[in-house]
Design brief:
Number of strands: 14
Shape: globular
CATH class of the largest domain: Alpha Beta
Strand order of the largest sheet: 5-4-6-1-7-8-2-9
CATH architecture of the largest domain: 3-Layer(aba) Sandwich
Largest sheet: 8 strands, mixed
Number of helices: 24
CATH superfamily of the largest domain: Alkaline Phosphatase, subunit A
Oligomer: single chain
Radius of gyration: 28 Å
Strand content: 5-15%
């Protein structure tokens, strides 16, 4: 019993039990299986951290030590509480690498607090228990914990404590390393435990395998020293689909590979040159030489598919191509990251605001540049400022010949964030640029980003209250009614666009693409269920509309599983642009090689047959078709490689490098 009177031992036990309790509560809240090999890793890490903290504070007096322990346990609890809340609100884990995400939360603290579930407060149980224990000891024993402590420590005891701590850390570390062996992970997982441990670039997988507290440390590490350990693993069933209708002279690219000394750049060269060349198809060139207007609609999901409230959108949906299984999975910075993926056909880095952090990157293969190369005039529009995203920088770097913001449109930004500008005003302004900005005789490609339907829906606002009479006879709660009111502004803007194009005589010669950047996640499932009668479990939350409209096409429902990732290669094929399908990890929806797989930021995925949950390894089937573990692992490997190829290409500004090197070689050949 004497050893239990040692204040360092007591502190160790307090921290170890608190960390384990918090991790178990966290797993229960998130629906993770508790008792797996990953819990052993959590225990060993908790042991290491508890030893370190206990030793560092062991020189304090007992009362101060108790106070410090309480503070540290409270910090544990608060951090995990915020992470759980953020995961529920945003759909991803909070990362220190994303400065703008804190602004997104601080701007909507009341909404964020309302989204917190009562069960989350169980995370403060260890803190409350330890607090009450200390109060009881002080009240009933009135000895300020001294009865449980060795009153004095001599120099040799300090040395013994140090040696004991080092032995404990070494022992726990060796055991921890042993449990990084791949035999302790799920069979279908494509990324090894060692790779995951070093990189930490897949937060959900990392948390599942190692725990939420270790994630906090790898997140800080990646903020200070971004990981360079990303790898492109060999694919066991790599099969290239080369169609004779799309042939490329790769000699300059092959020459570059032969001389390139940087192993990472060459891994990207080899990945993309061996990527699938999707075939031409019956939709190739169907919109050749037409104008294109792409509209990314803020916080729009299939609630907008209501012809009574939103006749303009539904007219386009019912008279165009309606992609009924389109998804817009969220990551950190969901609007900007999804916008980035739409324009480049690459996965965004789910942990950062990709376009902001890498705003100087250029992409000769972006949607803007493909149309630039085809002789189009390209521009882009957003009726807000650069408070969150630096579109003034990265849109031109992606190839937009002119980016227009709210100031250009003469719109006043209300400093109160619940007020947004009108999408109707943006459309009116856009229509003037067709005459004033687009050179005569040129086709145009325009990319518009709406904002009127942005949250908040909890509070009074100009557009949130403008059309409340539309739903006055319903039982909808006020947040839903305000959301529908804001959607009405979006729909009005679509109507103005159609009317303006018709008046200019170019409606028949213009293709309109409408898609949602993400669902209105701040409403929460309970509110969304008032309007939607479908499941909102897991993947289904991320379902959003995608409509492609032209007055000359035959209306059709497209039921393949797709996402914003496939937008650029799909449009490039529809307009018969000069593009290399290998330069995208997204795919042409209409090609015979289209995989029909949609992925979440944690690399879970869904196709027509099943939903694979990466954090649990669970498979939910929707058809009679079943997959072997080997087949699932092969799909996981492809997805993992696509994600890593994207991350490396972004971090190394690969497409700027490729364009420069190939252009230089072309000049050498010409000379």
């Amino acid at each position: 019993m004497k050893v239990l009177k040692n204040k360092s031992v007591q502190s160790f036990l307090v921290h170890l039990s608190s960390l384990m309790a918090l991790e178990i509560i966290f797993r229960l809240l998130n629906g993770y299986t508790v008792f797996t090999f990953s819990l052993v890793r959590v225990f060993l890490f908790s042991g290491i951290l508890s030893i370190i903290i206990s030793f560092l504070i062991s020189f304090l007096k007992p009362k101060k030590m108790a106070i410090v322990n309480l503070i540290i346990i409270f910090v544990y609890s608060l951090y995990i509480f915020i992470q759980v809340g953020y995961l529920n609100y945003m759909g991803t884990y909070m990362s220190t690498s994303v400065s703008s995400q804190f602004g997104a939360i601080t701007s909507y603290i009341p909404e964020f607090i309302k989204s917190l579930k009562p069960s989350y407060y169980f995370l403060f149980t260890p803190f409350i228990f330890y607090l009450l224990l200390n109060i009881a000891i002080n009240i009933y024993l009135n000895r300020n914990l001294k009865a449980f402590m060795i009153k004095r420590r001599y120099t040799h005891e300090n040395a013994i404590m140090l040696i004991t701590s080092m032995i404990g850390i070494l022992t726990f570390s060796m055991l921890y390393y042993n449990f990084l062996d791949d035999r302790y992970m799920q069979a279908e997982q494509a990324v090894s435990l060692i790779q995951l441990f070093k990189n930490g670039d897949q937060p959900s997988l990392y948390v599942k395998e190692f725990g939420i507290m270790p994630y906090s440390l790898i997140d800080l590490k990646n903020k200070a020293l971004p990981s360079e350990n990303i790898t492109l693993n060999p694919e066991s069933d790599l099969s290239l689909a080369v169609n004779e209708t799309r042939e490329y002279d790769d000699q300059l690219w092959l020459d570059l590979i032969a001389k390139e000394k940087n192993s990472t750049l060459n891994s990207l060269n080899n990945y993309f040159i061996n990527n699938t060349i999707t075939s031409t198809n019956d939709k190739t060139g169907i919109f050749k030489n037409k104008n294109l207007i792409v509209i990314m609609m803020e916080s729009v999901n299939d609630i907008i598919e209501n012809p009574e409230y939103f006749p303009n959108f539904n007219y386009l949906m019912n008279n165009g191509w309606n992609f009924t299984n389109h998804f817009s999975p969220r990551s950190n910075c969901p609007t900007s990251n999804n916008e980035f993926s739409s324009l480049t056909g690459l996965y965004a880095d789910a942990n950062i605001c990709t376009a902001n952090i890498y705003s100087d990157n250029t992409y000769f293969n972006s949607l803007f540049n493909l149309f630039n190369d085809a002789g189009y005039y390209t521009n882009s529009f957003h009726n807000y400022n650069n408070k969150y995203y630096n579109r003034e920088i990265y849109h031109p770097n992606m190839g937009s010949q002119k980016y227009h913001n709210a100031e250009d449109m003469g719109l006043t930004i209300n400093p109160y964030d619940y007020e947004w500008t009108s999408d109707e005003d943006m459309i009116k302004y856009f229509l003037t640029t067709i005459d004033d900005e687009v050179p005569k005789g040129k086709k145009f490609m325009s990319y518009l980003i709406t904002v009127s339907s942005h949250s908040s829906y909890q509070y009074e606002s100009k557009y949130g209250d403008m059309y409340l009479d539309m739903t006055e006879d319903t039982d909808y709660s006020m947040p839903i009614r305000r959301y529908l009111s804001k959607l009405k502004v979006v729909d009005n803007a679509i109507g103005l666009l159609m009317k303006g194009l018709k008046e200019k005589g170019i409606l028949d010669d213009t293709v309109i693409v409408l898609y949602g950047d993400h669902y209105p996640y701040s409403l929460g499932d309970d509110l969304l269920s008032e309007v939607l009668d479908r499941s909102l479990e897991g993947y289904e939350r991320e379902r959003t509309p995608l409509v492609i409209y032209n007055s000359k096409i035959t209306p059709e429902e497209m039921d393949g599983y797709t996402s914003y990732l496939n937008l650029t290669p799909t449009l490039a094929n529809l307009f018969d642009l000069d593009f290399d399908p290998r330069l995208y990890v997204g795919e042409d929806y209409f090609s015979k090689e289209f995989s029909g797989i949609v992925t979440l930021p944690d690399l879970s995925w869904r196709n027509e047959d099943l939903y694979y949950e990466s954090t649990t390894g669970e498979v939910t089937y929707y058809t009679d078709k079943t997959y072997t573990p080997e087949q699932i692992k092969a799909i996981n490997q492809k997805i993992y490689n696509k994600n890593n190829a994207s991350l490396l290409a972004i971090r190394y500004n690969y497409f700027a490098y490729l364009e420069k090197e190939v252009n230089n070689k072309e000049k050498e050949v010409e000379s």
